[in-house]
Amino acid sequence: MPFKSLGLHATLLRATTDLGYTEPTPVQAGAIPPILLGRDVLGTAQTGTGKTAAFLLPILHRMLATPERTTRAVIVSPTRELAEQIETACRGLARYTPLKSVLIVGGRPIGPQERDLRGTPDIVVATPGRLLDHMSRSAARFNRVSTLVLDEADSMLDMGFLPDVKRIVTRLPARSQTLMFSATMPPVIAKLAAELLRNPAAVQIGRRTATAVGITQAAYPVPSNLKTALLRHLLRETDMPSVLVFTRTKHGAKKLSRMVEADGFTVAELHSNRSPSQRTKAMEGFRRGEFQVMVATNIAARGLDVAHVTHVISTDVPDVPEDYVHRIGRTGRAGAAGDAFILVAPEEEGSLAQIERQVGHRLPRITLPDFDYQQAGTFSGGDGPRTRGGPVRGARRGPPPSRPAGHGQPPGPGNRGRRPR
Prior knowledge:
With 421 residues, this protein is α/β, with parallel strands linked by helices. The chain has helices at residues 10-18, 26-36, 51-65, 80-93, 110-118, 128-136, 153-158, 162-171, 187-196, 227-237, 250-262, 276-288, 321-328, 349-359, and strands spanning 41-45, 73-76, 101-104, 123-126, 147-150, 177-182, 201-205, 215-221, 243-246, 267-270, 293-296, 311-314, 338-344.
């Protein structure tokens, strides 16, 4: 169904057309009507399904219906990267309206943010800690806030922000509407929802641990000491126009970035050791296609919305299965196709098995005939045995056969991909 069937204001429909929105995603179709009616909403959906517009569009519509010169909505997200993207999306959707939004995040001068807040913006998009800072300084007037949005609530829990969220809630006035969106629903978040939401409309799209449709997944068994070599081999020998590489630590990300850059790739880094300006430059450059590869820690598992990411490669197996789901959700955005590879050492097979139980299927094991696993002696891996000097009998030489030929196919005989320029 078209967006106009949802009854949204004409200026918002014009903006959705400009932004290339053709029809509502399932989470938008499910969440927008009850939010327009003023109901609380508890939304659960995979990453990349359009949750941001699902709450922004009806909030903007309701504000246009009853204009007021005051701050009426506060949107809280766990990371500044995600907050930046929400505020950017808000400005895009409100481009033909008089409604204004401001971004309040840490790592930036507090003075300009105070001036923005004194200008009584309609919508405040903030991270928890910096929002509490401004509340403590009485820099903003939140006495007329009627809508609170908690986005990526499970991530806020994982990052230790739950106490901050509760303090924010107590400092806001009694609200007419609370919206909570989360990719997963652990018991603590379900308990918080029961405390904050009143008879909420539940919007759940897909299984809570499901991965987005259109993502081809594969595991590459490899000894730990050969992971970097295998990653560099994959990048050199496979056509990967836009790659997001996850690694466990910020020091590992920095080291890996230097190695990949030495191979001739344009590389960006995203981790907590980078300054706010460096992180913004990396994200914007990656979004514009200036960098072919971004190497990041889990800081980018959520909050990175880049439509053209073709491949996600994890150099480690996350201990928490949901982290894997969030990582690979950076590709296959909004129904597009994408590839997700994970490099698995023998000692990580137990963690991978937990992920496979969560996602409901076994990831195919792939070994490459043109990669020298003999660097570490005899190696067993893939969907069949591999011994020194011998091919992998019966092993897959590419992603599952459902992927159209030529799209993101791992290297193999006759498939030499685009090398870095």
